[in-house]
Amino acid sequence: MAGIDTGGGHGGKRSLNQEIPLIPFIDFLLCLVSFLLMTAVWTQMSRINADARVPGPPDPDKELEEQKKDLTLHVEMRGEEKFQLVWKEGNTVRDTIDVPRKQVRLNGEDFSYPDLSQKITEQWGTTGSHRADSDLKRDQAVLHTDNTTKFEDIIAVIDSIYAPQRTIKLGGAEETISAFNVTFAVD
Amino acid sequence: MSSSKPLSRFHQPISVPGRRLLAGLPLAFVSKKVSGGGHKSVNHDIPLIPFIDFLLCIVLFLLASFSASGELPIDKSVRLPSADNVEDMTQAPMIAVAGQMILVDGIPAGTTRPVKEANRMQKLDELFNILKGRREVFKQINPGKDFHGIAVLQVDREVEAVVVKSVFQTAALAGYPNVSFMVKNRGGGKKRG
């Protein structure tokens, strides 16, 4: 069926030709395929990040009073009709934008807020503090929600906050990261 | 049955082989058919080499996508929400909120009842103690190594925000400030590493 012909074996010597046992080899491959198919993981679970470390570490080279406070995006989702995006510098409100709370149903029970994603992406493009490739720090978003909001609603809003993405350079290689880091407000 | 008459050949357990029909025939018509007999041959060679190549490709693909850790354990009562802008899963303690139960890697770690009764965010003591204990064990096993502080929350989509925020805050207080929520990947966004 398949063999290695070395052309030897003349003059009474033992032949060096060898037959490769293809059938056991195919059996082995089929066993391997079966095992790998049975143990394959087809469902892909992922995670959406939130961080309780707010604000980021201060610059050790500067005095605390001298350090400029970063603009923080507060996403207020307690309204029935609208979301409110508030840019704050410390406790000072710099800008307030209303976004209609328009839920778009996806397949099954999933939904998203595409208008909110679009508005946050626009806002980060004009107001975001950390946009340079060399800047590893992310802008901070704080999510305000009431106690009865369902978890699926929270995830839909966090997903919208993570919509704006940017690239950073890490040791010559480019990596895509979310522009924002999300945490929850304690109120 | 004690008669001296011998049993017929149909009743004997082992019979002497007799003459067989067509035993002496050369079956020339069969050999003629098989060899073609003037028509196209019915013999076929199986192309083994492309077959082995195909199998090897499948093996390589499956090996590349093989995960030794297996599927992540998800409680059947937990219906996860889905999202587009997600990150890959990571190895971290899994805090599941299923109904009123809180589980850390499948081990019971209290209930959400006190939070629901008070209807305000509060520290969950049992969960706090388990997470803190795990953190201390990590530090004892890996002295001098940085603790990553990641925990993954597996929460049902119907759970209320007050419970989510309480678990989040408790994890942060126990030394896990980097909390992730487990979701199903819708695949619409760009997956970040």
What is the architecture of the largest domain in chain A at the second tier of CATH? 2-Layer Sandwich
Spell out the helices and strands of chain A N to C. EEHEEEEEEHEHEEE
Secondary structure: helix percent of chain A: 10-25%
Mind summarizing the main beta sheet of chain A? Answer: 5 strands, mixed
Low-confidence stretches of chain A: none
Q: Which strand order do you get reading across the main beta sheet of chain A? A: 6-5-4-9-12
The count of helical stretches of chain B stands at: 5
Helix vs. strand class of chain A: alpha+beta
Write down the Rg of chain A: 29 Å
- Which oligomeric form is depicted? heterodimer
Structure characterization notes:
The complex is a heterodimer of chains A (187) and B (193). Chain A has helices spanning 22-39, 114-127, 151-161; strands at 3-4, 18-19, 45-51, 71-76, 82-89, 92-100, 104-105, 111-112, 139-144, 165-170, 173-178, 180-184. By secondary structure, chain A is α+β, with helices and mostly antiparallel strands. In chain A, the strands form four sheets. In chain A, strands 6-5-4-9-12 form a five-stranded mixed beta sheet, covered by helices on one side. A two-stranded antiparallel sheet of chain A has the order 1-2. Chain A starts with a strand and ends with a strand. The mean pLDDT of chain A is 83. Chain B is an alpha/beta fold and 193 residues long. Chain B is 31% helix and 17% strand. A six-stranded mixed beta sheet of chain B has the order 1-7-6-3-4-5, covered by helices on one side. In chain B, strand 4 (101-104) and strand 5 (107-111) form a beta hairpin. In chain B, helix 4 (125-141) packs parallel to helix 5 (161-173). The longest helix of chain B has 17 residues, at 48-64. The mean pLDDT of chain B is 80. Chains A and B meet through helix 1, strand 3, helix 3 and strand 11 of A and helix 2, strand 1, strand 2, helix 5 and strand 7 of B.
